Amino acid sequence: MYRTTFMVGQGLEVVALFDSDDEGRAQEARLRTKWLPHFKDTRSSTVLLGTALDRAGDVGIEDLLSEKNYLRKAQEVHATALTRAGVESVTPEGSGTLVTRVARGYTKAGVKFSREAVAKVIRKELQELRRMPYLSDLGRETAEKAERLFASINSRYSA
Q: Mean pLDDT for the chain?
């Protein structure tokens, strides 16, 4: 949030993206109601990820990926711990963001889950996607979600 206010203070038009969970909604509301009004001439705004994707409930940035792909990356990162625990696969548990549900599944399996380690692997692969010739190589579900997200962000600039 502070990066956003700094950028807005420098005269940049910013669209800040927030997860649609309790913390993200609180941060989005705080930026929208407490900080952005100080910059009268700004066209900056905020977007909740769930709103952009037209999904109700809690939605996190990892929800842009398909559940199958995220689980595959999580299993890759936690392979040694899963083997030690004698667990072949983990099933997401309950409701909430994909990360929250996967973390519950890992807890149920007796394996400590590291969101940061999974994010690091995904981030590295996404950086390598710059060499990828087609958006469809991400998978149809991810590509469709990304298109909806960018359409929502772009609409903020044309408003």
A: 89
pLDDT band at 157 (very low <50, low <70, confident <90, very high): confident
pLDDT surpasses 80 at 27: yes
Q: How far apart are CA 10 and CA 8, in angstroms?
A: 5
Q: What is the pTM of this model?
A: 0.82
- Per the structure, the complete domain to which residue 17 belongs is given by 2-59+148-158
Are 48 and 97 in the same domain?
Answer: no
Indicate whether 49 belongs to any domain: yes
- Check residue 136 and give its pLDDT: 60
130 assigned to some structural domain = yes
Long-range contacts of 7-15 (CB under 8 A, 24+ apart): 8/35, 8/36, 8/39, 8/42, 8/44, 9/39, 12/44, 13/42, 13/43, 13/44, 13/157, 14/42, 14/44, 14/45, 15/44, 15/45, 15/46, 15/47, 15/153, 15/156, 15/157
Q: Are residues 86 and 116 in the same domain?
A: yes
Is the separation of the CB atoms in 24 and 48 below 8 Å? yes
- Report the percentage of the chain scoring pLDDT > 90: 62
Distances (CA, A) of 64 to 69, 77, 113, 139, 157: 10, 19, 19, 11, 22
